[in-house]
Amino acid sequence: MNYEAALSTAIQRLHDEGRYRTFIDIERTRGQFPDAVWNRPDGGKAPVTVWCGNDYLGMGQHPVVLNAMHEALDATGAGSGGTRNISGTTVYHKALEAELADLHRKEAALLFTSAYIANDATLSTLPKLFPGLIIYSDALNHASMIEGVRRNGGQKRIFRHNDVAHLRELLEADDADAPKLIAFESIYSMDGDFGPIEAFCDLALEFNALTYIDEVHAVGMYGPRGAGVAERDGLMGRIDIINGTLAKAYGVMGGYIAASDRMCDAVRSYAPGFIFTTSLPPAIAAGAAASVRHLKTDQALRDSQQTQAKILKLRLKGLGLPIIDHGSHIVPLMVGDPKHTKMMSDMLLEQFGIYVQPINFPTVPRGTERLRFTPSPVHGPREMDRLVAALDNLWAHCALNRAEMAG
């Protein structure tokens, strides 16, 4: 077999379908986000405004985070030196887990290097802890949740997205005595819609199932202390395992679960993805802890972000552009064709200095390709005006339809 030819064929197929992914070289400058510098492929540099980042609140630039990281770096050096079992546990890791347990009002929290690993490691380990476990997973759950469920070797049931009635049917069809877990998200990031958390919790109570919620797009953003949608809705106490990230609203890196002390201890003791992974650098843990601590009290920052999202949605609706609006902070603008989506993204970058990545299959279903905007408190009127004018111009230039999509 000609292996290089096979690789070329696979890559060319992505080019032909218009969904080959290009990494844009962006330099963030301290204190200037969302303004950044684009290192062009031709070697030149150009100013850009970032509109697709997951640093939803600008905490990656916040002085309280940077100061904590500097202090930890000066005190301890760069890396952690090993896994949590082999010299990789420090006061910074323990302090961060304590902050996260307090945030979610749980007995304990367990830190991972990413929320992807937290989902994968936890969901793939649970059948070892509960033999015969059946996991009921929402059809649109994150890839990391899907992978964890797929790898665990146990039974799984996929219910239609946010379909409580379908989930009930699946639960009723299984052995009443079998251990069960319902896995879902609070906010689905591609459409920005919310999961019916209370209804899922009611089913879990009725069928004696555990509940597992992914709050990665909600932590820091929702609830009086930023613990997520479950906190906002007064439901945290009904969730058994909460997954979150430190790489989005908290602006740093890492993932975690929050649960009972016994649950965290069991996952810690059995999950290879935790046991054999070097822990986060102490400076990262220190910065994340500072960010979590700060956002427990900074409601003004959350309110500002929600206001910016509402303004952008209203302005795009006013132009008749087809956005999806489920009331969350995420603004998906539907294009519906991979090549048009990539072309729009390229033109925004090259002609207007606006950076937003195209979202194509397999991240979203074919025919629902989109541009996904994430306004933040640091996107001011100037940036908003430039974005809206550019989209109006390009939508006309590309002769795309103007028809608002229902939320």
UniProtKB/TrEMBL annotation:
It is an enzyme of class 2 (transferase). InterPro entries: 4pyrrol_synth_NH2levulA_synth, Aminotrans_II_pyridoxalP_BS, Aminotransferase_I/II_large, AON_synthase_class-II, PyrdxlP-dep_Trfase, PyrdxlP-dep_Trfase_major, PyrdxlP-dep_Trfase_small. The keyword Acyltransferase applies. Its EC number is 2.3.1.37. Residues 48-391 form the Aminotransferase class I/classII large domain. It catalyses: succinyl-CoA + glycine + H(+) = 5-aminolevulinate + CO2 + CoA. One of its GO terms (biological process) is protoporphyrinogen IX biosynthetic process. Pathway: Porphyrin-containing compound metabolism; protoporphyrin-IX biosynthesis; 5-aminolevulinate from glycine: step 1/1. It holds the Pfam family Aminotran_1_2. The keyword Ribonucleoprotein does not apply. GO terms for molecular function: 5-aminolevulinate synthase activity; pyridoxal phosphate binding. PROSITE patterns: AA_TRANSFER_CLASS_2 (PS00599). Its cofactor is pyridoxal 5'-phosphate. Keywords: Acyltransferase, Heme biosynthesis, Pyridoxal phosphate, Transferase. Belongs to the class-II pyridoxal-phosphate-dependent aminotransferase family. Homodimer. This is 5-aminolevulinate synthase. It comes from Loktanella fryxellensis.
